[in-house]
Amino acid sequence: MNASELATLMLDWEKKRQVLDALESTIEMAVKELGKSFVVGNIHAIYYKGRVTTDWEGAAKVALDGDEKLDQLIEEHSRTLVDWKAVYMDHPHKDFHIESFQSVSEPSVVVKIDKKAEGT
Predict the structure, then answer these.
(1) Which of 26, 45, 64, 100 lies at 20 to 30 Å from 35 by C-alpha?
(2) Residue 75, Cβ neighbours under 10 Å: how many?
(3) Is 90 exceeded by the pLDDT of residue 26?
(4) Considering only CA atoms, which of 97, 75, 98, 95 is closest in space to residue 87?
(5) Alpha carbons 9 and 77: distance in angstroms, whole number
(6) What is the radius of gyration, based on Cα positions, of the chain?
(7) pLDDT at 64
């Protein structure tokens, strides 16, 4: 193979890669919309729901606002850092709406070929 033939192959690969990338993106969007994983043949489109993170400090401070136990609970659950989740969880009003202190990341999808099944 000469340099010109190699260049032609590389350009052909680039075009096909762009088509495959667009197809993968379409699959990812469809899987996110459906909200579950799919396996078709050797192809796995794995759905991962978004992670939930909680602002325990903010939740505990708002939930305990004006409560004289706040300083006591902070002291009780303090080490080098305050364990805000423990402060919040020890609060007697467990019906507090923690959702306003949570954020959820976007779901993600991984599309892959099962290499083990491919060789069988």
Answers:
(1) 100
(2) 10
(3) yes
(4) 75
(5) 63
(6) 25
(7) 84
